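Re: weekly structure request thread

Next one in the queue (308 aa):
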Amino acid sequence: MSQKEYSIVHPQAHEIDEVFDFLVQCDLAEYGEPDTSREDLENEWQEVDLTQDAWIGRDVTGKICGYGVVSRDGDRLVQDVYIDPSRTPSGVEDELITLCVTRVEEWLAVVPTAEPPQLIGYVTSVSQRLQAAYERARFARHTYHYRMQIDLPAPLPLPEWPAGYEVSAYTPQDEDELYHFIQTAFDWPGHTDQPFDSWRSLVFRGGRFDPQLFFLVRQNGKLAGAALSYDEEQGGWIRQLAVGKDQRGSGLGSLLLKHVFAVYSQRGRSNVALGVASVNGTAYQFYEHNGMRRKREFIEYHKVLYLK
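Done, posted below.
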């Protein structure tokens, strides 16, 4: 048997810059521009056990050639695997996927679930090699996700709001109302309410949170819409945008988007982006109607785990 052209080990905290550079290289290989946030990687490494939940592959020269990590987000079990087709030896992706699956099976052996759990993985649509690896591991395609983006020209003026509507920044007193508003507004097929702690960890994560960029719209004092966004190096990122059911079709969503676009253009950012799932077809069409275009496509894979 020939010797493997790589080795896989757990990363150490001091290797974060090297891993981040590899993830950026993967982005460049796929789309020609970076899409990875170092802050996201820092947060990820704070939340997982590096000695058990993450792995790096190194080729015979010692350079990183693969990265995998598995995490628990509330009830969701998620894995991420990265390879660079021009640098990653054959077999790395399969081994990383297998290690993630095995780690989740170890968790479930300790804390079993009533229903067979599903492990979720995400792959860009251009990564044919990684798609093939997931399918060899018997993951099934579940949903398509799109990065919608608008490129911003010179600074845009803030839109005028109709009488009775007011935009304000988030305050700690808004937290409970905002959480319940978001859960009620996201009522597409298959949606289940996100646990409060999980939602809070998601939207208030790390140093990116700026209350001035969490835009709350009230009509006569009642919360009617919200756009929760972050000012990132590449531009603005909208994590969640929601409009109350009784406001749909009123133009509030478009007005809220224009407000976000204007704020980021005045900050000198070149674009604003967000993610949307294909199962929410109305939302996809809404963002296109408001000038956003599909920039990247991701495939969400699921694997049902049946424990012995």
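The chain has a mean pLDDT of 90. The longest strand covers residues 140-151.
Next request, please.
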